[in-house]
């Protein structure tokens, strides 16, 4: 069984899309094993997005993810990382298929509704950041 981390980002939380987005994962038969709503600190945001440090959009990313509440989820299933990334769709909503979460709800490349881990290793690292009691 594989685990992945999802963040429902401030743009989606502000538009009250949390329930609808969670329901997409549940209806796919995925098992949500942990869930929390938090307003990220700058410190946790920088840890989470450490691999993007130095990129031109890094500061925008940190400003955005810390501007309001996010919902962090641990999702478990066989192939959880790949399945959730397919459900979420491409990073840029212009490239995202219409049926994906980003295709339906994302506003831009930065305000793109959801994040999910890009590998099993990233999932372990990110789950340890957001759910320090569960890693
Ligand atoms: P996410 O899956 O959370 O992982 C890194 C995030 O960086 C990504 O989603 C996008 O929201 C953001 N991102 C990636 N590329 C760009 C970009 N060129 N401009 C702004 N934001 C970006």
TrEMBL record:
Keyword Magnesium: yes
Domain of life the protein comes from: Bacteria
Chief place where the protein resides: cytoplasm
Molecular function (Gene Ontology), one example: metal ion binding
CDD domains linked: NDPk_I (cd04413)
Cofactor(s) annotated in UniProt: Mg(2+)
PROSITE patterns recorded: NDPK_LIKE
Reaction catalysed by this enzyme: a ribonucleoside 5'-diphosphate + ATP = a ribonucleoside 5'-triphosphate + ADP; a 2'-deoxyribonucleoside 5'-diphosphate + ATP = a 2'-deoxyribonucleoside 5'-triphosphate + ADP
Nucleoside diphosphate kinase-like domain residues: 1-135
Keyword set includes Nucleotide-binding: yes
Catalytic center residues: 115 (pros-phosphohistidine intermediate)
SUPFAM superfamilies referenced in this protein's UniProt entry, alphabetically: Nucleoside diphosphate kinase, NDK (SSF54919)
EC number in record: 2.7.4.6
Keywords: ATP-binding, Cytoplasm, Kinase, Magnesium, Metal-binding, Nucleotide metabolism, Nucleotide-binding, Phosphoprotein, Transferase
Pfam family, one: NDK
Biological processes, Gene Ontology terms: CTP biosynthetic process; GTP biosynthetic process; UTP biosynthetic process
Entry's Gene Ontology cellular component terms: cytoplasm
InterPro entries: NDK-like_dom, NDK-like_dom_sf, Nucleoside_diP_kinase
Subcellular compartments: Cytoplasm
Function: Major role in the synthesis of nucleoside triphosphates other than ATP. The ATP gamma phosphate is transferred to the NDP beta phosphate via a ping-pong mechanism, using a phosphorylated active-site intermediate.
Family membership noted in the UniProt record: Belongs to the NDK family.
Subunit (UniProt): Homotetramer.
Protein name listed in UniProt: Nucleoside diphosphate kinase
Origin species: Clostridium kluyveri (strain ATCC 8527 / DSM 555 / NBRC 12016 / NCIMB 10680 / K1)
């Amino acid at each position: 069984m594989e685990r992945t981390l999802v963040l429902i980002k401030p743009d989606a939380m502000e538009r009250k899309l949390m329930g609808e987005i969670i329901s997409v994962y549940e209806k796919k038969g995925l098992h949500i094993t942990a869930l929390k709503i938090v307003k990220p600190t700058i410190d946790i945001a920088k840890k989470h997005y450490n691999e993007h440090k130095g990129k031109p959009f890094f500061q925008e990313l940190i400003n955005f993810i810390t501007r309001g509440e996010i919902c962090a989820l641990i999702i478990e299933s066989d192939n959880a990382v790949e399945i959730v990334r397919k459900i979420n769709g491409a990073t840029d909503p212009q490239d995202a298929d219409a049926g994906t979460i980003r295709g339906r709800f994302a506003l831009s490349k930065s305000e793109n509704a959801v994040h999910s881990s890009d590998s099993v290793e990233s999932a372990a690292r990110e789950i340890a950041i957001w759910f320090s009691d569960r890693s």
